């Protein structure tokens, strides 16, 4: 099972590739990947914040 950090890194690579291929940030695929990446980043930040609160 991939960690959330692994998923973020994978999606970052996909996003860079998609922008390079499509040539624009508004392409449907680019937007979809960006939204997925955003959701994982928010999840990671939430987990990190919860850990800090629990300490």
UniProtKB/TrEMBL annotation:
BP term (GO), one: regulation of sporulation
Xref: SUPFAM superfamilies: BAS1536-like (SSF140500)
Extent of the signal sequence: none
GO terms, molecular function: protein dimerization activity
Gene3D superfamilies (alphabetical): Helix-loop-helix DNA-binding domain (4.10.280.10)
Short name of one Pfam family: SpoOE-like
Superkingdom to which the source organism belongs: Bacteria
Protein's name according to its UniProt entry: Aspartyl-phosphate phosphatase Spo0E family protein
Annotated source species: Paenibacillus thiaminolyticus
């Amino acid at each position: 099972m991939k960690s959330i950090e692994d998923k973020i890194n994978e999606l970052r690579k996909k996003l860079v590739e998609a922008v390079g291929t499509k040539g624009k940030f508004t392409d449907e695929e680019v937007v979809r990947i960006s939204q997925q990446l955003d959701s994982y980043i928010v999840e990671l930040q939430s987990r990190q914040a919860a850990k800090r609160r629990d300490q």
